Amino acid sequence: MVKVLVTGADGFAGSFLVENLLANDYNVRALVRNTPILNIPSRRVRKSMGKLKRLEIVKGDVMDYPSIQKALMHVDQVYHLASMSGIEETRRNPQGAWSDTTGTFNVINACIENRIQRMMYCSTCHVYGPQSTFPITESNIPQPNDIYSASKYSCETLSRALMNMNPDLDIVFSRAFNHYGPRQRENWLVPKIIMQALRDGSVHLGGNTSRDFSYVTDIVDGYRLIMEKGKRGEIYQLCSGIERTVEEIAEDVISVIGRRDIAVSFAVPRSADIPRSYGDAGKAIRELGWERRVPWTEGLRRTVKWYQERP
Asked: Which domains, and CATH codes, for the chain?
């Protein structure tokens, strides 16, 4: 049975990836930096799922090389998701965002030392920056325009350089577009709209840009398929192919909540924002057999329900 390591395992997407891998009969070692654990299924839930023995949680940090080197021992594959995420967070701490390149170097170097079969690097659609042709495909030329996207694209470039130097090193790349679902932090768009609507009775947002959203379980299913079927060095986009403005997204969320009295207003867009973003997942569909299973409105219902059930 294949044993995998997931970095950033207790994050939003990382925790859903852990669940996906367990459901597909992998042995999972989950690397977490902080305790208490927030998002990974509890021991009681794992036992009820019959997956108690196949999940090992280890504490470590990709910035601490001895801990990441130890975490990769006796592992077959690595999903590298750990990074500082969130545009606002990275802009408040650009040095911390840039340090993700060091963390990625540590993970790759530990892969080489431990002779790991394969690694997936979790990049982002934000590396494309402002584009003039749509939908965006893997052939669009990246134009990183802030510290978050620059750091992510630098990690991609670093990965390719180390693959050139180490022919046995096998890395595949994901570039997922925006995703949403339960357990996402409140400063991300969909939960921000939900929480403002539930708590304040009004919604105030930044600029009315457009984005491409998919439900988180579909995205992490794509991560697994990229690892299982993707070609060495290739990039695979995961997205809906549907462009929605922030105003349309807010209206859809409010509709699911069932309120008609919630006003939506907009502020000045943040600097270096991307005005439009939506992609084409044709490559992932053709080569990996990936598909989106959760419709937009159904995903919103699940997400709203999760936040409504919590104080």
From this structure: 3-180+213-241+278-293 (3.40.50.720)
